[in-house]
Design brief:
The chain is an alpha/beta fold. It contains 24 helices and 20 strands. One iron/sulfur cluster binds next to helix 24.
C-alpha cells in the first residue's frame, strides 16, 4: 500500500509536507512504517481541491486534507480498511461521495501523456521514474536506433511544439541536425511567462526526469553534448527538483560521459531567468543566457542555425520534451492516433479564472472548449453565466459562447481569432468587462515589452491610452476604429512575437463584444458594472432613514448627513468602493 501526497507548489503551500510528516508519525505509532510507503509526488492536477492524498492500490482520492486528518486516514483507512468519508470528493451533480479518482468527472476526459508521472511518482527518486519505464527510451535510442530513425519517429508522431508556435518538433530536430558545426546545444524553454500558466512548472516539479531524458535524446539526434534549461528563478521548487534529478541521472550514468557505455556524452546545466515574459521568446532567451539584454533579434537566422554563442541550438518547450520518451517507447503510430488531423497527441492546460475546478488538465487535441469548461472544469463559479474564455495568454484572444463546441487544435483556435499558446486558459463570467480585460492584457504586454522596436513600445502605449479613455467614459466612436487600425499596424510591423500578438486581446474583444465597446462610448455605461468611472452610487431620499451607517463606513468621507435625515453622496469625492451599498440595510442606495 502507498500513500501519495501532492507535493506541487499549490498543495505544498497548504501544508502538504506537514500532512506527510503526520502520516509518518501515525504509521510509526501503529508499527506500519515498514509496510506503507508515504510519497510526496508532483501535482495531481485537481489543485482546486488540494491538498490531495491518494491511497494505492484502491485509488481512494482524498481532497482538502489537513495535517489533523492524518490520524483518521491511518486509523480508519489503513488499519480498518474504511474510507474516511468526510475527505472524499462529492460529485456536485448528485451529492454522492466518490471513492475512486477514476470516477471523478475532472479526470474522466483526460489522457495524461506529458503528465503521466505527475502525481504518481516521487520526483526526487530516479528509481521511481525508472520503475515507470523511465530512461528506457534513451536506452533504446542509443543502442537500437540511428539518429535518423529517432528523428523520423518524432516526425511521424506529428508532435508540434507546445511552447505556442506549434512548429513540428521532428522537423526542427532534423534542421538542427543537418547544420554542420563543432558544437551544438539543446535548450529547454522553461520560462513560462504567461499570466496564470503553470503547466511547465508542474511538469518539472512532478516529473523532471522525463524532460532530462528527452533532452538527452534530442542531443543524440542533433549531435550535441550540451543541454541548458532556461528556467525562471521564481520557480524554486522546480529548480530544486531539476537539480536533484540531474545529479541522480549523472550518478546512474544516464547523463555525463559515455552514457550507458555507448560513447555518447551529454550534460545539462541550468540558466536562470529573472521573470521577463519576453525572455520566453527563443532569441531573447538565448541572449539572456549569453548574459546580454533579453531582447529578441530578427529571424532568420533561426536558433537551429545560429543560436547560443552563434552555434546551432534546438529550443523546445518543457511539455514538448515531456512527450518524447512516450513517443519512442510506444511508437509514433500510437501517438498520432490521438488528436486531430493536424494536431496530434494531447495538450496540457492550466485552467483558471471563474471556473469551479481550477487546475492542471491534459486533454486529447480535438476536445471541445465546452468539454473542458463544463465536463472537466465543472462549469462557471457561483452558478454565473459563461461569457468568454481566453486561450493563448496575453497573445491570445477571448472567445465567446459560439466557439464552445470548437475542437481545440492549433488551426481551429487561430481560425476562431485566438491561439493555442502555451496552455493558459482563463475563463470569464458575466461580471467581467471585456474592455477592461483587453486593457488588463495590454497593461501586461506594455510592462513586458522590451522596448526595442517602436510599433510595440509606442503603439501598445497608444492602444492602452485609448482603452483607458473608453473605460473612463471619455471614449468616442472613432476610438474603436483607431484601436483596430493601430492593432493591425502593430501586428504587421513589430519585431517579435510579443508585439505581433499583443493586439490580439483588443481585436478579439472588439470582434466578439463590440456591443460592450459601444455601450461604453455611446451610453457611458459598463454593462458588466466593472468600470468604476462609469458607475455612480446615489442615495434615494425617500428610502434613507438617516441611520448614518454609510456615513460612518465611507472610507473617504464622501457622505454627509445628520442622524434621521436623508444622507447625500458627493460624487466628486466618491471612489466607488461600494461599501455604502453593502452596508445600507434599507436599500436606500442605488448603483447605476
Ligand atoms: C513573447 C513570447 C514569449 C514566449 N514564451 C515562451 C515560453 O515561456 N515558453 C516556451 O516554451 N515558449 C515560449 N515562446 C515560444 C518560443 O519562442 C519558442 O517558439 C519555443 O520555445 C519553441 O519550443 P517548441 O517548438 O517546443 O514550442 C514565446 C514566444 C514569444 C514570442
Ligand atoms: S515586439 Fe516588443 S518585445 Fe518584441 S522586440 Fe519589439 S519591443 Fe521588444
Ligand atoms: S445606510 Fe442607508 S439608510 Fe442609513 S444613512 Fe446611509 S443611505 Fe440612509
Ligand atoms: S461608494 Fe464608497 S466612496 Fe463612494 S460614497 Fe459609498 S462608501 Fe463612500
Ligand atoms: S498542486 Fe496539488 S493538486 Fe495541483
Amino acid at each position: 500500500m502507498h500513500i501519495l501526497i501532492c507535493g506541487g507548489t499549490g498543495c505544498k503551500a497548504s501544508e502538504s509536507s506537514d500532512i506527510k510528516e503526520k502520516l509518518n508519525y501515525f504509521l510509526n505509532e501503529y508499527d506500519l512504517e515498514d509496510e506503507i510507503q508515504v510519497v510526496l509526488t508532483g501535482c495531481f492536477g485537481f489543485c482546486e481541491k488540494g491538498p490531495i492524498v491518494k491511497i494505492l492500490p484502491d485509488n481512494t482520492f482524498y481532497i482538502e486534507v489537513k495535517p489533523s486528518d492524518a490520524e483518521d486516514i491511518v486509523k480508519e483507512h489503513i488499519i480498518k480498511g474504511r474510507p474516511v468519508h468526510r475527505l472524499l470528493y462529492k460529485n456536485p451533480k448528485n451529492d454522492f461521495k466518490v471513492t475512486s479518482a477514476t470516477n471523478i468527472d475532472f479526470y474522466k476526459k483526460q489522457i495524461r501523456i506529458a503528465l503521466r508521472n505527475c502525481g504518481f511518482i516521487n520526483p526526487e527518486n530516479i528509481e521511481e521514474y525508472i520503475g515507470r519505464d523511465g530512461y528506457q527510451a534513451l536506452g533504446k535510442c542509443l543502442t537500437e536506433l540511428t539518429r535518423t530513425q529517432v528523428i523520423n519517429e518524432v516526425k511521424e508522431s506529428g508532435l508540434r511544439g507546445r511552447g505556442g508556435g506549434g512548429f513540428p518538433t521532428g522537423l526542427k530536430w532534423e534542421i538542427t541536425r543537418n547544420v554542420e558545426a563543432d558544437q551544438k546545444y539543446v535548450v529547454c524553454n522553461a520560462d513560462e511567462g504567461d499570466p496564470g500558466a503553470f503547466m511547465d512548472r508542474s511538469i518539472l516539479e512532478g516529473d523532471p526526469h522525463s524532460v532530462i531524458e528527452a533532452m538527452a535524446i534530442c542531443g543524440y539526434c542533433i549531435g550535441s553534448d550540451s543541454g541548458l534549461v532556461y528556467i525562471r528563478a521564481e520557480y524554486p521548487l522546480a529548480i530544486e527538483r531539476l537539480k536533484t534529478a540531474i545529479k541522480q541521472a549523472e550518478e546512474y550514468g544516464l547523463l555525463g560521459e559515455d552514457i550507458l557505455g555507448t560513447g555518447f556524452n551529454f550534460k545539462i546545466e541550468l540558466r536562470y531567468g529573472a521573470g521577463a515574459f519576453v525572455c520566453g521568446e527563443e532569441t531573447a532567451l538565448i541572449h539572456s543566457m549569453e548574459g546580454l539584454r533579453g531582447e529578441p533579434t530578427v529571424k532568420p537566422p533561426f536558433p537551429s542555425v545560429s543560436g547560443y554563442r552563434g552555434k546551432p541550438t534546438n529550443v523546445n518547450n518543457v511539455e514538448t520534451f515531456a512527450n518524447i520518451p512516450v513517443i519512442i517507447n510506444k511508437g509514433a503510430s500510437w501517438f498520432n492516433k490521438i488528436g486531430t488531423e493536424k494536431s496530434k497527441g494531447t495538450k496540457v492546460f492550466a485552467l483558471a479564472g471563474k471556473i469551479n475546478n481550477v487546475g492542471l488538465i491534459e486533454v486529447p487535441m480535438g476536445t471541445t472548449l465546452r468539454e473542458v469548461i463544463y465536463d472537466i472544469g465543472g462549469g462557471i463559479k457561483d452558478g454565473k453565466g459563461f461569457k468568454s474564455v481566453q486561450t493563448g495568454g496575453p497573445s491570445g484572444g477571448c472567445l465567446t459562447k459560439k466557439f464552445l463546441d470548437t475542437p481545440i487544435d492549433y488551426e481551429n483556435l487561430i481560425a476562431a481569432g485566438s491561439m493555442m499558446g502555451s496552455g493558459g486558459m482563463i475563463v470569464m463570467d458575466e461580471d467581467d468587462c471585456m474592455v477592461s480585460i483587453a486593457k488588463f492584457y495590454l497593461e501586461f504586454t506594455l510592462e513586458e515589452s522590451c522596448g526595442k522596436c517602436s510599433p510595440c513600445r509606442i503603439g501598445n502605449k497608444r492602444l492602452h491610452e485609448i482603452l483607458c479613455k473608453i473605460t473612463e467614459g471619455k471614449g468616442e466612436l472613432e476610438d474603436i476604429d483607431r484601436l483596430k487600425m493601430l492593432s493591425d499596424v502593430i501586428k504587421d510591423t513589430s519585431l517579435c512575437g510579443l508585439g505581433q500578438s499583443s493586439p490580439n486581446p483588443v481585436l478579439s474583444t472588439i470582434l466578439n463584444f463590440e456591443d460592450e465597446y459601444l455601450a461604453h462610448v455611446n451610453d457611458g455605461k459598463c454593462p458588466a458594472g466593472q468600470c468604476k468611472s462609469l458607475m455612480r452610487y446615489d442615495i434615494i431620499e425617500e428610502l434613507c432613514t438617516g441611520c448614518t451607517l454609510c456615513f460612518r463606513n465611507c472610507p473617504v468621507g464622501a457622505i454627509t448627513g445628520e442622524r434621521r435625515v436623508p444622507h447625500y453622496i458627493d460624487q466628486s469625492i466618491c471612489i466607488k468602493c461600494g461599501v455604502c451599498f453593502e452596508k445600507c440595510k434599507f436599500n436606500a442606495i442605488t448603483l447605476t
